[in-house]
Amino acid sequence: MTSLRVEMACLLLFLCMVVPSLATVYTVGDTSGWTTGVDYSTWTKGNTFKVGDSLVFNYPTSHTVDEVSSSDYSTCTVGNAIKTDNSGATTVALKTAGTHYFICGVIGHCGNGMKLAVKVESGSSTAPSTTTTTTNVPDSSSSWSPSPFVAFVTTWVALFVMVIS
Questions:
Q1: Does the pLDDT value for residue 145 go beyond 50?
Q2: Beta strand pairing status for 135-136 and 89-93?
Q3: Who contacts 34 (Cβ-Cβ below 8 Å, separation ≥6)?
Q4: What are phi and psi of 7, to 5 degrees?
Q5: Is residue 116 left, alpha or beta, with left meaning phi > 0 and alpha meaning psi from -120 to 50?
Q6: pLDDT score of 165
């Protein structure tokens, strides 16, 4: 009986460690961040975005991250954001498939290239992860998710409780 309990605990541990690693965290613009003078269309071509992945925007608070409609993205129309944040560190969880559009809401910045269109596919991510500390944009297409460290600690606590009981 103890052997079965240990096997089940090991299986639980394995599953808890694998599931958080399936999502990829993409830092928008890599080391350049979210700023003018970066070609975001080239940046997206090197990445495959999947439902469950996250976009991390790092920027000075003189910029914003605005999620906008396709037409507002195409015309760089500011003031109609679906969601907006200006904290300097924004994480957007990609919860739905389709194209998501982001611009800087500061007048003139979008026209100078500070815009991003991300096509999100269904399924799990297989690309390598990058990590940063960020805050979330509150909206229906983004959500908070625990860091891999929190998932790891929770898994070990659960394993410990199962083994001693």
A1: no
A2: parallel
A3: 28, 57, 58, 59, 63, 65, 104, 114
A4: -60, -45
A5: beta
A6: 65
Nearest to 21 by CA among 121, 115, 140, 151: 151
Q: Where are the alpha helices (DSSP H) in 22-49?
A: 40-45
Residue 36 contacts residue 109 (beta carbons within 8 Å): yes
Largest CA distance in the chain: 68
**pTM metric for this prediction:** 0.65
Q: What is the mean pLDDT of residues 142-146?
A: 43
> What phi, psi does 5 have (nearest 5°)?
-65, -45
Whole-number pLDDT of residue 46: 81
CA-based Rg of the chain, rounded to a whole angstrom? 19
Q: What is the Cα 82 distance to its own chain's centre?
A: 17
